[in-house]
Amino acid sequence: MKAKKVILILLVGFLLYWMFSDPAGLADSGESLFSNLWELLIQLFEALLDFFSALG
Predict the structure, then answer these.
(1) Could you write out the three-class secondary structure of the chain?
(2) From 32's CA, which of 6, 18, 24, 43 has a CA 20 to 30 Å away?
(3) What are the Cα distances from residue 26, in Å, to 15, 18, 33, 42, 49?
(4) Domain chopping of the chain, boundaries
(5) What is the pLDDT of residues 1-56, one digit of tens each?
């Protein structure tokens, strides 16, 4: 349990440091991350639709 807290504190500390040192870089990385996740979700649902349509 302590290891999870330490990792969480380090992660939050890193994100805060990044936010204050390079806010534009953090925003660009966040936008890119969510854009890529959205594309992966679209691909997943398209694959599921293809799979279930092939079954029927």
Answers:
(1) CHHHHHHHHHHHHHHHHHHHHCHHHHHHHHHHHHHHHHHHHHHHHHHHHHHHHHHC
(2) 6
(3) 8, 7, 10, 24, 35
(4) 23-56
(5) 799 999 999 999 999 999 999 999 999 999 999 999 999 999 999 999 999 999 97
